[in-house]
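Consider the subject:
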Amino acid sequence: MLSRLPSDVWHYVRDAPGTYLWLVALLVTSRWMATMPAERSARVLAANSTNLARLRRAPLLVLVTSAFFTAGTSWLFYLVTYSVFHAPAEHWLGTWRWLAVIALAHVGATLISQGSVWYRIRKGELPASEREASDYGVSYAQAGAAAVLAWRIPLPWRIAYLVVLIAFYLYGLAKDRRDFTALGHVCAVAIGLCCFWLAP
């Protein structure tokens, strides 16, 4: 059985090319950022953030590039979570439908969460400086992939999976309602769940 492990791992990776190519890109960017002085890396992250300021100047660019930077978590964490959530979703949906789900989750959650920032600045609940708050990373796409994967899990395990998934992200929102990323995560889960129609 152990003799088949390398072959099984290769087939698992080969059948989820989008997931693992993305992981390679994250590894490259994280290593690249690690070589920079702190001031320069902060400028790079600011230029690739999907905050209100950058969305106004270069919306399409930052919606793409923001998904290739990690938010301080080790690359090993992403290797594990991508293998647990993204790869099974890509195996099941196929690369193009998986890509559609994560794009919808990433873009939709970003626009909704930043829309809430804009609204709260207008109401005076947040300072105007929040227009330039850092907002980058892959967590919205991860939440969307984890959510759509629920439709692959048979009942009754699907119910337990959904309870844990939704409770995890709702806890983050309840803990800090001022955190726009917590709202984005909840929205990404909702978008992922709404993508059941993409299932084969």
Notes: The chain has a mean pLDDT of 90. The radius of gyration is 18 Å.
